[in-house]
Amino acid sequence: MTAPSLVLASSSPRRRDLLARIGVTPTRISSPDIDESPLKGELPRAYALRLAQAKAAAVARAPDEIVLAGDTTVALGRRILPPAEDEQTQRKLLGLLSGRRHSCISAICVIDRMGTARTRMVETVVAFKRLSEAEVEAYVASGEGLGKAGGYAIQGRAEALIRFVAGSHSGVIGLPLFETRALLLAAGYPLG
Q: For the chain, which domains are there?
């Protein structure tokens, strides 16, 4: 049996970069078109897992392909924080996160050649320092956190504003590598 090909169900350059860290290059990239709106009363962990599974299922898969999808959700308690679509939203999100701990929930789903879906979820606790208005404005002006869940990117300038991380740093970026590698191996993807 030939080695399977990997389809990454994400257009995120961060996920491609993270996979490269473990020596994985997707054969194909396919960005799933799904509704990412939270369901009424949906909790963050259930939301992240549902999205990862939905993204994986939304991508067409050939018989020799494995599909990998992920979702990273930022939550403050039971509240799911949206991506920062504009600077005003980003300021609001950073204000909510300032001086507080929050959770980054990373869910991944791998569908193997037989159509079996395997999932893992990792929750990482992140704490920002208390942010001054000048720090918020400087970060917003950098443009870095736009489009990102919670309004920040830990792999960039925001890392200097974070005083505490407990869990998977790569999971906060977008793909927990330890769990991703384990799922790919379980699905029959060859890794060294």
A: 5-186 (3.90.950.10)
| Residues 6 or more apart whose Cβ sits within 8 Å of residue 166 | 124, 125
The dihedrals phi and psi of 124, each to the nearest 5 degrees, come to: -115, 135
70-88 confidence digits (pLDDT tens): 999 999 999 999 999 999 9
Residue with tokens 């790569």: 170
CB atoms closer than 10 angstroms to residue 82: 16
Q: Is 60 exposed, middle or buried (0-12, 13-18, 19+ CB in 10 A)?
A: exposed
The first and second tokens of residue 120, run together, are 């893992």
Catalytic residues: 71
Strands 65-76, 79-81: pairing kind: antiparallel
C-beta separation of 9 from 55 below 8 A: yes
Which helix (H) or strand (E) element contains residue 89? helix 87-97
Phi and psi dihedrals of 4, rounded to 5?
-75, 155
Of 165, 188, 166, 184, the closest CA to residue 19 belongs to 184
Q: What is the per-residue pLDDT across 116-150, written as a single tens digit (0 to 9) for each?
A: 999 999 999 999 999 999 999 999 999 999 999 99
What is the Cα–Cα distance from 152 to 143, expressed in whole angstroms?
A: 9
Residue with tokens 């879906």: 117
